[in-house]
């Protein structure tokens, strides 16, 4: 499995500027090989990681599950 390190702040700022979702970027990265995407802060500390699946269908399942969990967490904050 290939590892890809991404600085989180510049990555998410670029997504905002280009008005694109991280899921669209992830979909472009799918090539049949699993990849571990490692998000780091400015001090190279691990924030979180995500294993990019081999297929866009699995990516879509991950996106739906992420959205569900994110919505649940937000509802608990209110």
Keyword list:
single chain, 78 residues, alpha+beta, three-stranded mixed beta sheet, 3 helices, 24% strand, globular
Explain what you see.
The protein is α+β, with helices and mostly antiparallel strands and 78 residues long. 53% of the residues lie in helices and 24% in strands. It has 3 helices and 3 strands. The chain has helices at 8-18, 22-29, 56-77; strands at residues 2-7, 35-40, 46-52. It has a 3-stranded mixed beta sheet with strand order 1-2-3. β2 and β3 form a beta hairpin. It is globular and about 40 Å long. The relative contact order is 0.17. The model has no long low-confidence stretch (mean pLDDT 92).
How would you sum up this structure in a few lines?
The protein is of the alpha+beta class. It has helices at 8-18, 22-29, 56-77, and strands spanning 2-7, 35-40, 46-52.
Helix and strand layout, with pairings?
Elements: E1 2-7, H1 8-18, H2 22-29, E2 35-40, E3 46-52, H3 56-77
Parallel strand pairs: 1-2
Antiparallel strand pairs: 2-3
Which stretches are poorly predicted, pLDDT < 50 over at least 5 residues?
Answer: none
Q: What structural class is derived from the secondary structure elements?
A: alpha+beta
Our count of helices gives 3
Quick one: overall form? globular
Query: Biggest sheet: strands, sense, closure?
Result: 3 strands, mixed
Question: Order of helices and strands, N to C?
Answer: EHHEEH
Strand content: 15-25%
Report strand order across the widest sheet: 1-2-3
The chain-level mean pLDDT equals: 92
For the secondary structure, the number of strands is 3
CA radius of gyration is: 13 Å
Residue share in helices? 40-55%
The N- and C-terminal alpha carbons lie at a distance of 39 Å
């Amino acid at each position: 499995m290939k590892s890809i390190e991404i600085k989180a702040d510049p990555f998410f700022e670029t997504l905002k500027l280009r008005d694109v979702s991280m899921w669209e970027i992830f979909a472009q990265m799918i090539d049949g090989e699993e990849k571990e995407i490692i998000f780091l802060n400015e001090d190279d500390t691990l924030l979180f990681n995500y294993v990019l699946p081999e297929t866009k269908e699995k990516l879509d399942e991950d996106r739906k599950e992420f959205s569900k969990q994110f919505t649940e967490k937000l509802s608990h904050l209110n």
